[in-house]
Amino acid sequence: MVIEYDGTDFLGWQIQKSGRTVQGEIESALKKIFNTDSITLIGSGRTDSGVHAKAQPAHVKVDTEMECEKIQRAINGNIGNDVYISKCLFVDENFHARFDAKAREYHYLMTESFSPLNRYKEWFLPRKMNNELLIECSHLIIGKHDFTSFCKANSEVENKICTIFNANWEINDVHRMFIIRANRYLQHMVRYLVGTMVEVARGRYTVKQFESMLNGKQSDDIMVYRAPACGLFLWKVEYE
Q1: CA dist., res. 238 & res. 230, Å (int)
Q2: Three-state secondary structure call for residue 57
Q3: 103-238: same fold as 2-87?
Q4: Quick one: pLDDT at residue 75?
Q5: Under 8 Å between Cβ of 28 and 206
Q6: Rounded mean pLDDT of 189-209?
Q7: Which of 6, 9, 37, 48 is catalytic?
Q8: What is the per-residue pLDDT across 73-125, written as a single tens digit (0 to 9) for each?
């Protein structure tokens, strides 16, 4: 299934001991529909609290004769209005939403113009910055890098190498959108990249300092900054 959700009122994708999550919401609906407690929904990745998704693929194994359209309608009828199954289909039993993914694309939205309608969908940052420096930093991200400096400090993932296929900023008078496409991401990685690029564009760090962090070099006089979750969207996931 492909899932679209507003992450504002969720504690992220993954089920927690307490609190509402996207995985938990959909699993509860599936257990009700198929009258079973043995349901595990596997997503293509885990989004953090407050992060949104335009198209989050996920898979679940069920023994059923229901048609996909009926399953889709049944799930949507048993979940909140801030999450929606936009597509549902049967796939090969060996398909894995996470491990079979070849590329994932995220968008991060920023604005200099405040709107109460979009306060949970973009980072309101009314500060002047050098757009050329933002673009220059984004070009440096492309390729294979050690993102140790740009992930959560207590991350349990040992391999911090990620391959970035594309990274760029789309900018107009009041809006900025960062688009990144990669094979994998570390926890908070996109938000740390965005926040630190903004610090460069504000003149607090140099492009050279940003580049050194991309090469895994830590420095006591440089720290990464994490952009708010509200502006981040999992936009699409690609498979063979």
Answers
A1: 23
A2: strand
A3: yes
A4: 98
A5: no
A6: 96
A7: 48
A8: 999 999 999 999 999 999 999 999 999 999 999 999 999 999 999 999 999 99
| Residue 100 is among the residues annotated as catalytic for this protein | no
Asked if 222 contacts 213 with a C-beta cutoff of 8 angstroms, the reply is yes
Q: Encode 172-214 in three state secondary structure.
A: CCCEEEEEEEECCCCCCHHHHHHHHHHHHHCCCCCHHHHHHHH
The full set of domain ranges for the chain reads 2-87, 103-238
- 10 Å CB burial of residue 134 (0-12, 13-18, 19+) is buried
DSSP letters for 117-130: GGTTTSEE------
Q: Look at strands 123-124 and 103-111 and give their pairing.
A: parallel
* Residue 172 burial (CB count, 10 A): 8
CATH of span 103-238: 3.30.70.660
Looking at domain 2-87, its CATH class is alpha beta
CA distance 170 to 43: 28
Q: ∠ CA(21), CA(102), CA(226), 5° rounding?
A: 50
Chain Cα centroid distance, residue 64: 31
**pTM given for the model:** 0.94
